[in-house]
Amino acid sequence: MTALAPYWELTKPRVVALIVFTAIVGMLLATPGLPPWSALVLGSLGIWLAASSAAALNHLLDRKADALMARTAHRPLPAGQLSARDVLVFALVLGTLSMLILALGVNPLTAVLTFGSLIGYAVVYTLYLKRATPQNIVIGGAAGAAPPVLGWAAVTGEVHAHALLLFLIIFIWTPPHFWALAIYRREDYARAAVPMLPVVYGVEYTRQHVFYYTVLLFVVTLLPWLTRMSGLLYLGGAVVLGLGFLYYAARLLKPPNERFAMEVFYYSIIYLMALFALLLADHYLAAPQVTTMVFERVG
What does the pLDDT read at residue 46? Predict the structure, then answer.
């Protein structure tokens, strides 16, 4: 187990767990009852493997910068636990398995979209965007916002407008989520010559943009209700969660201490998980006919 621990760390398990969770929510929302078990299991497995492959490639391509940053210096490559060749082989094996499972066991569209997301994060974002522009996380966030679309496509074989709403929520959520971390870790990013927003434009400017994006996020999270994708159960929860995020973002403008940026970061994770859980609760509990279908499928 000790020998496998560095490989497990390469997969960024906490980040990937959130990715897979949002993908599964996309699968469950794509159908009134429960989706076919083959699509649910193989789709989740394939997306998990692809996300883990992308995470490993991110470790590989960022190994020099990681060695300069306190937050990442302990990672397997800068710590000397694995070689670059080990990580490359590991990432390629995971990526290949993912594509085979999705293409043969789910459907070609999901495989193509997942491959595009993998390349978007591991290559386009990590290799180019991350060091090309302070808007790196805004543009690169498209890859991280894709999982609900992948999950939806795994069940239905199509990209539905409602799946794109889920994509939009994560896409708008990503900048305030990540910029809160970047504010706290700005010295790390400066040391590694990564032009994150607080490094290039300063902390005050970044705090303002965290607030602006949080306001936009609050509006965007109302769209599932406005488009009748979800009902009042979701709406009530989304408003409460959104007001909580707005509170954190507003307080970040004049924070009580330096550590408060990390409190915003942690809340943003809880926020996204709770928001997607509300989408599921509304989907299965708010409509009696849907609940009946679910129990019939389970029974």
Answer: 97
Higher-pLDDT residue of 297 and 133 is 133
Global confidence as pTM = 0.92
pLDDT at 102 over 50: yes
Q: What is the mean pLDDT of residues 243-255?
A: 98
**Cα separation, 262 vs 248, whole angstroms:** 11
Under 8 Å CB-to-CB from 75, ≥6 apart: which residues?
9, 59, 63, 66
- For every residue of the chain, which 3-state class applies, written as one string? CCCCHHHHHHCCHHHHHHHHHHHHHHHHHCCCCCCCHHHHHHHHHHHHHHHHHHHHHHHHHCHHHHHHCCCCCCCCCCCCCCCHHHHHHHHHHHHHHHHHHHHHHCCHHHHHHHHHHHHHHHHHHHHHHHHHCCCHHHHHHHHHCCHHHHHHHHHHCCCCHHHHHHHHHHHHHHHHHHHHHHHHCHHHHHHCCCCCHHHHHCHHHHHHHHHHHHHHHHHHCCHHHHCCCCCHHHHHHHHHHHHHHHHHHHHHHCCCCCCHHHHHHHHHHHHHHHHHHHHHHHHHHCCHHHHHHHHHHHC
Instruction: Identify whether the C-beta of residue 94 lies closer than 8 Å to the C-beta of residue 54.
Output: no
pLDDT over 60 (residue 193): yes
Can you tell me the distance from the alpha carbon of 57 to that of 87, in angstroms, rounded to the nearest whole number? 7
pLDDT tens digits for range 208-233: 999 999 999 999 999 999 999 999 99
For residues 160-184, give the mean pLDDT: 96
pLDDT band at 1 (very low <50, low <70, confident <90, very high): low
